[in-house]
Specification:
Radius of gyration of chain B: 11 Å
CATH superfamily of the domain at 8-203 in chain A: Aldehyde ferredoxin oxidoreductase, N-terminal domain
Number of domains of chain B: 1
CATH class of chain B: Alpha Beta
Strand order of the largest sheet of chain B: 2-1-7-5-6
Distance between the termini of chain A: 34 Å
Number of strands of chain A: 17
Oligomer: heterodimer
CATH architecture of chain B: Roll
Number of helices of chain B: 3
Strand content of chain A: 5-15%
Bound molecules: iron/sulfur cluster
Radius of gyration of chain A: 22 Å
CATH topology of chain B: Ubiquitin-like (UB roll)
Shape of chain B: globular
CATH superfamily of chain B: Beta-grasp domain
CATH architecture of the domain at 8-203 in chain A: 4-Layer Sandwich
Distance between the termini of chain B: 30 Å
Chain lengths: 576, 84
Amino acid sequence: MPFGYHGCYLRIDVSRGSVERVPLADAVLRQFIGGSGLGVRLLLDAGCAHLDPLDPEAPLVFAFSPLVGSPLTTSAKFAVVSKSPLTDRINDSLASSGFAIAGKSCGCDALVIVGRAHELSVLVIDDGLVRVEPAAECAGKTCQATEAELRSRLGASFRIAAIGPAGERLVRYATISHDGRHAGRGGSGAVLGAKNIKAIALRGTQRAEWAHPRELTAISKDLSKRSFGPATEKYRDLGTATNLLTFNRFGALPTRNFQSGTFDEAESLSPEQLSTTRAKTRDSCVACTIGCEHIYAVGDDGHVRVEYESLFALGSLCGIGDADVVLRASQRCDELGLDTISTGGTIAFAMECVERGWLDEPWLTFGSGAALLHAIELIGSRHGLGHLLADGSRRAAHAIGHDSIAIAPQVKGLEMPGYEPRALQTMALGFAVGARGADHNRSGAYEVDFSDKVDRRHVTLDAVRHAIDTEDRAALMDSLIICKFLRGVFDDFHAEAAAMLQSVTGWDVTAGELRETATRIVAAKRQFNLLAGWTPAEDTLPERFLNTPLPNDAAAHLSLERLDALVAEYHRQRGW
Amino acid sequence: MHVEFLGVPRERAGVAELDVQADTLGRLLGTLAAQMPALAELIAVDRLHPSLVASLNGDRFISDPGTPLGDDDCVLILSADAGG
Ligand code: SF4
């Protein structure tokens, strides 16, 4: 067994409450590292790509990493990997903090959960010993209330990841929440809900040894020092929310279900404005020196972490500029355990369907805060219209008809994050080819658009290799795992990542090997998708983006021909 | 010519926008560094620190200090890490 690992995963069948400790070969760990990479590999080994993701036998993987528990800043993260009930394709979501450290301390490198508990339950893993306990008293409770309830029942030393009411009701974009952070995209909360597991509580004492602790400490100190520099200032000072005014200025802020790239009320939602009108505190994940979390007061005594993606999805995308409403909506999504991007995207889609007369729900109009908040409640409970919207915009479009799929803001079923693809065309490619659908965490192609490497509104085939680079780098960061907000800190990311991995594992790993590893992980995701039924026709964008220029920017025009050429070149360069 | 600051550069500049006389990007950055000490920390003579980028009129990103600027141009200065 290499340093930095326990060399096994726990296969837990919650139907029977049984656990099996399965060895992990050194070669597999070296080839897939941990996090997303290891999770995908375990799913491939399980031969489950054909299963309905909500089938009890469909595995849900929690994958830890060699770096978690080390002094490396931002390394306290875990990946949740499964087939997505929203896309029916691979899904890997990351979350942070004590759950990652506690999970690794249970003496394993991953949990693979299958089966379905007989009643709503909590899966307890106590230093590697597993039991399934009834959790009926948590039924219908929010993510936060569930964590609090179980911590008081089991003890403060447990770290808990929970689903909210949305996960229990199998909303296809339900999250798994830990300590206020969410494994957010793609519906892993519904996969856990389908297993009748409300929460996972774990604690442990088993530490993986590091190969070269002195070197690791030196690397960690240096990285922490650099993490205080200008490359992360944006995250420390304003958080990701500062994107809002930047994107608005570039005509790239999705507004009213992608009918515009600018929003007149953007200023009122910006962190620059929010911080002048309400109390704000800062926080960070465990073991992070950056601290990108900006937490704003909402209502009389509430608070909410404010991220760009939530502001855009529940704000401009729904035409809502009232900050109180948007923050309350974001807070409510956190409580119910809903992915804010898919929630906002699906509601905005429904609002446009109402506007076009395709959906007879006259109350659901752009700009109505009351409608947004009501729709979120309906989705969380699957009541009325919420039952349709809980399945996401793609399935809703198929039910609504009228060719509404052309305006459903999704790729492979995953609602698009806050990047207008006609104004950011390298990102358009990243969205189209993304293994888990439209996604800004698995492709950083927008960085290319915000550089002098391309003309963002007329990208050529030259953009493809840059898009591939960002996708590969993301796959590596998500497998090591370290936070992407560190990316600007590195002078030579692959060389520095190799040094980190060497000091933890003792492997003679090089930058070149890590480049190959990243490519392997991206290919493994594609392999899963192929087995799940992927076809080339899925690597595209909704029609709206291919036949309508942005109203506010005629230069932002992306044709089907151009996107097809980019996608074909992407496949060619990937060797697929 | 006109300059707009977004995000961190706006915080450091202390203003959202201003008018400046400059005929190249390098001269513009030199002028800004002289006027704005907090921003000067992120300007090395006539170039931006890698954590910042400049866009000409929102159309294209520019980094060459010799890039000519006209009276009607608008330079946007923002964080390089535009996404998240
Ligand atoms: S930068 Fe933000 S998301 Fe990343 S580890 Fe730190 S607090 Fe967590």
